[in-house]
Amino acid sequence: MSDAPVLPVDEIAKRELEFFLLADCSSSMSGEKIATLNHVMREVVNTDLPNVLGNQPNVQMNFRVIAFSSDARFAIGPDPVPIENVTWQDLSANGATATADAINLLCTHLANERMPKRGLPPVCILISDGMCTQGAEEYERAISNLEALPWGKKAIRLSIGLGKIGYDLDEEELKKFVMPAFRNEIGVLNAQNKSQLTKYLRWASVSASIASSMTKSKMNSSEGSGAHVVLPPPPDDLVEPTDGTDVF
Amino acid sequence: MTSNEKWGVAAASRRGVSHIRNETPCQDAFGTWCASFAGNPCQILAVSDGHGSDEYHHSHFGSFLAIRSAYEEFVEFFQWYSLLKTAPSDIEGLQPSGLERDFKTGFARRVVRRWRENVKAFQRDVLKVDVTGDDSSEHQYKAFGCTLLAALVTRDRAFFFQLGDGGIFIRKDDGEIYPLVEDDDEPGEATDSLASRDPEKTAFTSAVSLDDVSAVMLATDGLTKSFTRGHDEIVSKGIRKTIGWLVNRVIAEKLDVEGPVFDKFLDNCSLSGTGDDVTVAIAFSREKLNCGTPPHPHNVERGRSEANPTDPKRAVSEPQEHATKDSFEESCSEGQPITKVVVTGNVAIGNSAPQTTPPDTVVESSNASTDAGDVF
């Protein structure tokens, strides 16, 4: 029969994985920090993530970048961009550190109605070299907004802090962004030089993507939820001998 | 043509590509049964999906035990239901409506209890594990964690049970398709489970009239998550079209010969969709879909039985028909191994003394432990 129904092979769709990078583009990131970030993310987008997805044919990754300085805006986005279509555009650094705005912008796009119904846990990586200049209360409110969202709770969230903790970097502040299950185990990935930033950024992007794409069914447990994803340990803490000239 | 011919059943299950890649067994199980009691026909369908990751390392057994538990509880329920329909009682509490109320309030608890008993027996008799401890503890059952979707189709009503993800879909006579349970939009991979502490609290039970229903489909999430669904859709286009195709093949009496086509489609769902095991079971009204004789079995499981009203002890004159080894091999021709646990029942229940034969079990798996076959 010419009008006989056909099986909906065309309707079969991969599971979607939303990847968000929240990148600090404040003035203090200028120079080597932003140059390294641009260089590494170009590698991540062109090589690392496509390699990951080569082993996960059921996954469609969509990539977005929220750049924040005195305000927050999409550098790649706001519509999700399939990873295979992403061309990394170098970020530049100038302005304050509106981390709360960046997290609130992320929340807008993690709302149920904007996320794919059968999506995998989204990956959200925050990279910053300083403290939020919008005040502690504003930052706390943004974190609460994130934690209140169903997709915010499920997201694999990691933080990378550039520089020396306790000087320009507030570790506790960045730790609040990290997914609760990983706050003690992984905490804030502290990169003090170019080499560490490279390793941590690549590890965070790739590991979180693999973990999300391999998420399996897990029962709702009354004993409290542990991580529904498993991450390998991060690269060893590389406090390599330096002559002091290669630190951020 | 007996009254049992009015509804037919079919099912198919495919091991997911991610499981083939990782050399892990199929976590899905399913069963289809046709039977009658005191001249009242019924069909029972069940599908179950084990959780599969390391902490649920026995979940492929858990799903097997789940469909067995659903079958056992539905058989018991149907005996009472059938009795009360044919010999109404004036005793309050023994009315069919009373039984339906009990189904909605108590069936979930009974299925969970039956599953736990089956799991404990399996641990004790097969795994040789000393099973002690708090029965309500999640730990005891966690390794066997799985979902369960089941349906009992009688002459005029259908009874449904759902615990966990996947979907139960009803096709109305006008072609419209409805989910039994609306998606709660909860993101992520967490699902309700038989292994949870109080799973009956999150189970869904329902009884519906079959007056305007022509087909019912159960599917594990390997199928339901293979299709995108718009925020304004209650059933995805993919599910609608899948049911549409199955119904069309039933009407055309070609479901058996096109079994391999459906298998290939399920493989595609796994390959291009979720990567997960994919399992589907369907019951369809031959009367409403104007089908003729029941189709022969192929790799798509089929069940039919012919009640012989003159000999109640031989209520089932033909055993459930399994897919033959040949058909498995035929559908494996592209090198796609099937791991499938089939439990079908040949229920012979007479008017006088109920006679229930235990289900026959066929384990078709390259990965399933031989212990599973030894138990059943």
Ordered list of secondary-structure elements with their pairings:
The complex is a heterodimer of chains A (248) and B (376).
Chain A: E1 15-24, H1 32-54, E2 59-68, E3 72-82, H2 99-110, E4 123-128, H3 136-148, H4 150-154, E5 156-162, H5 171-175, E6 189-191, H6 194-213, E7 218-219
Parallel strand pairs in A: 1-2, 1-4, 4-5, 5-6
Antiparallel strand pairs in A: 2-3
Helix pairs in contact in A: 1-6, 2-3
Chain B: E1 7-14, H1 17-22, E2 28-37, E3 40-49, H2 59-86, H3 96-125, H4 138-142, E4 148-153, E5 157-163, E6 167-172, E7 177-179, E8 190-191, E9 204-209, E10 213-219, H5 221-224, H6 237-251, H7 259-274, E11 278-285, H8 286-289, E12 301-303, H9 325-331, E13 340-344, E14 348-349, E15 360-364, H10 370-375
Parallel strand pairs in B: 2-14
Antiparallel strand pairs in B: 1-11, 1-12, 2-3, 3-4, 4-5, 5-9, 6-7, 6-10, 10-11, 13-15
Helix pairs in contact in B: 2-3
Describe the structure.
By secondary structure, chain A is an alpha/beta fold. Chain A has a domain at 26-158 and 173-188 and 195-213: Rossmann fold, CATH 3.40.50.410. In chain A, 31% of the residues lie in helices and 20% in strands. In chain A, strands 3-2-1-4-5-6 form a six-stranded mixed sheet, with helices on both faces. Chain B contains ten helices and 15 strands. Chain B has a six-stranded antiparallel sheet. Chain B has a six-stranded mixed sheet with strand order 9-5-4-3-2-14, with helices on one face. Helix content of chain B is 32%, strand content 23%. In chain B, a hairpin with a 2-residue loop joins strand 2 (28-37) and strand 3 (40-49). The two termini of chain B are 33 Å apart. Chains A and B meet through helix 4 and strand 7 of A and strand 8, helix 6 and helix 7 of B.
